[in-house]
Amino acid sequence: MKSNNFKENIIPALVLVCICLVVTLALAGTYSVANPVIEKNQQKAADEARMKVLPEGDSFTQYDGKLVAGVDDCYIAVNKAGMAITSEYKGFGGAVKVMVGIDADGKITGVEVTEHAETPGLGTKAMTLEYLKQYMGVAAASGGHINDDANIDAITGATITSNAVYCSIGEALAQFKECGGVK
């Protein structure tokens, strides 16, 4: 009776444990081979996104100093052409993440909204290339609210989203100053 119980309960459990060990080792092996390739591709995609807002940049290294409130990350171009800074500010539908390119002179070279949950067709008008072009060459934001800056226009009916983009850009410019420019 005991040998029958052993065959019915213990052997299947041992077989399952062995299968789990083999699968775990196979997954670990696959991860160790694939992970460096995945990280390299992610770095390349991130650098390409940064080069969209800072075309003169070649590759980027992460700034490891203090980040200004609202700034998610800051990368400095290896060739010292400028910085690519990602910041966020609360919009109508949630956080609006913006990547801003700032050249070595402190002027904006490009702006791209990378993440948002704004109203399609209304709030998203503040994310079009046509709207974002007004920030090109800007070196300072007045701070506060977009309505306080006579040089930047808000989208009618989407002031909250326009302000989120504006304030995100202001945070990026503040980060550039915090870094002391490109060194």
Can you give a write-up of this model?
- The protein is of the alpha+beta class and 183 residues long.
- The protein has a domain at 60-179.
- The chain is 42% helix and 20% strand.
- The protein contains 3 helices and 5 strands.
- The longest helix has 52 residues, at 2-53.
- The model has no long low-confidence stretch (mean pLDDT 90).
List keywords for this structure.
single chain; 183 residues; alpha+beta; five-stranded antiparallel sheet; 20% strand; elongated
Strand percentage lies at 15-25%
Strands of the largest sheet, in order across it? 1-2-3-4-5
Query: Class by helix and strand content?
Result: alpha+beta
Spans of at least 5 consecutive residues with low confidence: none
Instruction: Tally the helices.
Output: 3
Q: Please give the largest β-sheet.
A: 5 strands, antiparallel
What would the average pLDDT be, to the nearest integer?
90
Alpha carbon gap, first and last residue:
80 Å
**Form type:** elongated
Query: SSE string, helix = H, strand = E?
Result: HEEEEEHH
Strand runs, count = 5
Approximate helicity band: 40-55%
Q: Please tell me how large the radius of gyration is.
A: 25 Å
Brief summary of the model shown:
The protein contains three helices and five strands. With 183 residues, it is α+β, with helices and mostly antiparallel strands. A five-stranded antiparallel beta sheet has the order 1-2-3-4-5.
